Amino acid sequence: MEEGDLRKISAEVASPAMVERFLNAAAEKGWHWQTLNLQGTPIQLEVELRPL
After folding, report:
1. What pLDDT was estimated at residue 52?
2. How far apart are CA 50 and CA 25, in angstroms?
3. How far is the C-alpha of 9 from the C-alpha of 45, rounded, in Å?
4. DSSP letters of 1-47?
5. Bridge-partner residues for 36, per DSSP?
6. Which residues have a Cβ under 8 Å from the Cβ of 37 and sit 6 or more positions away?
7. Residue 18: CA count within 13 A, CB half-sphere
8. Is 37 within 8 Å of 45 (Cβ atoms)?
């Protein structure tokens, strides 16, 4: 994997179910999470995605 293949995303998320839907949709598009950080209320999401 090259550095250019990594995608970093930060977002505020209302519920854990939304995180799950996002990760499932990313997987359907050919992306897999490499690192995942969830904190606080509302949930602060930080995720690094890489191509499968």
Report:
1. 85
2. 14
3. 8
4. --GGG-EEEEEEES-HHHHHHHHHHHHHTTEEEEEEEEETTTEEEEE
5. 47
6. 44, 45, 46, 47
7. 10
8. yes
Write out the two tokens for 46.
Answer: 């930080």
Contact (Cβ atoms closer than 8 angstroms) between residue 29 and residue 49? no
Measured CA to CA, the distance from residue 14 to residue 45 in angstroms comes to 10
pLDDT digits (tens, 9 = 90+) for 1-52: 455 789 999 999 999 999 999 999 999 999 999 999 999 999 999 999 999 8
42 token code pair:
């509302």
Picking from 34, 42, 40, the residue whose alpha carbon sits closest to that of residue 9 is 34
Closest by CA to 11, choosing from 50, 48, 52, is: 48
